[in-house]
Amino acid sequence: MLSRKIKKLKNWLQNRKNLQLFRLQLAEDKQKTAAYRVVLVSHELSATGAPLMLLSAAAAILADGGRVRVLAYMDGLLRQEFEALGIPVFFHPAFRDNAALLNEFAADCAYAVANTVVAYPAVNLLKDINVLWWIHEGQVIEKDYIARFRKKKIRPDLEGTLRSAKKIAVVSDYARQVVGRYNALADVLSLARKDVAAVQGFEPKIPREKIRIGMLGAVCEIKGQDIVLEALRNLPRDYRAQIELHIAGRQDNDFAQALLVGSKDMPEIFWEAPKQGNELWQFYRDNDAVLVASRDESFSLVALEACMAYRPLIVSSHVGAKFLVVSGKNGFIFENENAESLCQMIIRLVDCRDKLADMGRFSRQQYENCGTLESFRQKFLDLLKK
What we know:
This protein is of the alpha/beta class. It is 45% helix and 15% strand.
């Protein structure tokens, strides 16, 4: 108990010291000229989907002549990426619910972006600023956040904020089905990925012997690896002999360990470590197709990256990026949580062995049509200034 109090005191002192420094940096930032100023509010700065897209948004603002400031509830690895662009980053837990502090650091900004559903307090607390609430979540909004907040009677009210927000962007039509039940004003701002196909040598791929299907992401219930294993067990023997499934992601939980033990009699399954950097791109090169089996995923950068890399897809009907898939042209969509439906889609993929390269080319067209940073930047700026 004493050690916990000491740690809490140390954190409080460090946050106070940081705030003194941040106020000096804020004064310097206010002196710099810009066509307009934007404050980006994020609950975290990890190198993951939503914060990475916020970095892309910041780059779009800079290219448009604007100036950016980032307010985060906690520090993270992505801070260095923002600072490399000349963007000041201020992090303090009080940015979550302290209206005075939040507005002190945002007062000279014309626009604001509250990033993810977690940053919803900023939508209420920021004053005299045009706020875009960029929601990256899907069904979890209702199943987790709203249900939990109702139970604990937390205020400010998330459900009320959803209903009253004047400007909301979601990442897919799938996500809009959830948010639209509370607010009809939600626009779709799909995610994007930098095109590295030429640098990484991506090209359409013809399977050699077995068709390699890749899955990326933490091994957990929401990602649906258990559904995939059940589907593979349902495959006819001759089809099962024609594929390999490579699953790359964190396996540090009971769910993952149970799947590892339960799949020991399945030689077609290969469990791999998480992939980052060059290992990530190599994973796409090595696999002939990509599978996204999530029970609920508002978008899926993995699906978008697969299209960029000329790879066919199989995706769940509860994946927001399913709009990238045209059935039979570059992949297949299976019914969410339905192992038999997935089994049938794998059979269809195997039957298309000789067409996988052409399917990969269609995937690439889908990426070029709606997944490039160039298309994202203009739509983001239009929504920001709306």
